[in-house]
Design goal:
Blueprint: E1 2-7, E2 13-18, H1 26-33, E3 42-47, H2 56-62, E4 67-73, H3 75-82, E5 88-94, H4 109-117, H5 121-132, H6 135-144, H7 150-166, E6 180-184, H8 192-198, E7 203-207, H9 221-225
Parallel strand pairs: 2-3, 2-4, 4-5, 5-6, 6-7
Antiparallel strand pairs: 1-3
């Protein structure tokens, strides 16, 4: 896993953001740029789940905070549960599940495999259109400037698929469970039905009109944390 401290001012509270597969720190930086002064949290951005565990020194540093909040999107939901972070006060899953390779509660294995097999520049263009749901959102994602090439994204997805093929679920790995789940009713990656089936017993909010990539409609981190 790769990480970057985007806010690191010795505050007593921290938000740990687990981004989606294939991403980098662009989304987290975009939200931070639109977050007003006085946010009140340090911010750690995480991505690249070829190895979903956080580095030992990062886990040690996170353990020094009084309050740890996890915000996870897409495959970042699965990675967060495997990351090794403990003592989580509140946690938010956005358009993802703990069972991402699953016919009923995640992504169908044949679709997952087809995404991997077809990953290329054109495949990435098609995928980005599906996750954004509109030209406006796609343009904003492009402006966020993901600095990862196709080969690096495919390498990550191959590693994730290999791990999931041996154990499809992250359930039971973390000592904490997600507090809330937010489901976009226009998600074309993790279908709304799969997400709702996966989050039995968890408080779920279904957001009308929201595609898989929800951040184009959000003005800053304060709007994300409202969901908690």
């Amino acid at each position: 896993m790769r990480t970057e401290w985007l806010l690191h001012s010795a505050r007593r509270r921290v938000v740990v953001f687990f981004n989606g597969w294939g991403m980098d720190h662009g989304i987290a930086r975009h939200l931070l740029a639109n977050t007003p002064e006085g946010f009140g949290y340090d911010l750690l951005s995480c991505y690249d789940y070829g190895d979903p565990r956080l580095a030992p020194d990062t886990l040690t540093e996170l353990g020094q905070y009084d309050e740890r909040i996890v915000v996870a999107w897409s495959l970042g939901v699965w990675a967060a549960a495997l990351s090794g972070i403990e003592g989580v006060s509140r946690s938010l899953a956005i358009n993802g599940t703990l069972t991402p390779l699953d016919r009923k509660q995640g992504i169908r294995p044949d679709i997952f495999q087809a995404t991997l097999d077809g990953w290329s520049e054109k495949g990435r263009e098609r995928f980005n259109r599906r996750i954004c749901g509109s030209n406006e959102s796609l343009e904003l994602l492009q402006q966020m400037g993901v600095q990862r090439d196709v080969a690096d994204q495919k390498r990550e997805l191959e590693a994730i698929f290999s791990k999931l093929s041996h154990s499809t679920s992250a359930t039971g790995y973390a000592s904490w469970g997600f507090s809330r789940a937010v489901v976009g009713d226009r998600d074309m990656i993790f279908t709304p039905a799969a997400q709702e089936a996966a989050w039995q017993g968890v408080s779920v909010s279904v957001v009308s009109g929201m595609p898989h990539m929800p951040f184009a409609a959000m003005k800053g981190w304060q709007e994300v944390l409202v969901w908690l």
